[in-house]
Design a protein that fits this description.
single chain, disordered N terminus, SH3 type barrels, 26% strand, 134 residues, alpha+beta
Length: 134
């Protein structure tokens, strides 16, 4: 009895490539994450502040799925896709300095409740490296 391996179609290869690129991006971001006090601000129940890498704002999303879509659009440099997520209310921007309470966590993302700014009381998902100690 022999087993024959059949190659995947182009669709399967493209899907694998996209997943691989996303994984590499997440691993690079995790490797560059600062150590120490900032990590303590990223645990459930911790308070922190939103900080970007000099942009002045951070992208956030209403659900984990929307955050995944936001990351994929950003990796692909798909500005139209980002605008569509924002226009549909699934994503938005939060200014540096916004105070948050971490209320849930996923892999490389945290759900936060805003404690300052015009979104006070609302929740969103944000990349964990964008949360730092107050």
């Amino acid at each position: 009895m022999s087993t024959q391996l059949t190659p995947r179609g182009k669709k399967g290869c493209i899907g694998c490539s996209v997943a691989f690129v996303l994984l590499v991006v997440l691993l690079v971001r995790a490797a560059n994450a600062p150590e120490g006090a900032d990590n303590a601000a990223r645990h459930v129940g911790s308070r922190g502040v939103i900080r970007s890498d000099g942009q002045g704002y951070v992208y956030v999303a209403t659900t984990k799925e929307a955050h995944d879509a936001l990351i994929k659009a950003a990796v692909a440099n798909d500005l139209v896709g980002i605008r569509q997520l924002m226009a549909g209310g699934s994503a938005g921007m939060v200014p540096d300095g916004t105070q948050v309470l971490v209320i849930d966590q996923g892999m490389y993302v945290r759900q936060v409740r805003f404690e300052s700014g015009n979104l006070t009381g609302q929740t969103a998902w944000v990349a964990y490296e964008d949360i730092q100690a107050r």
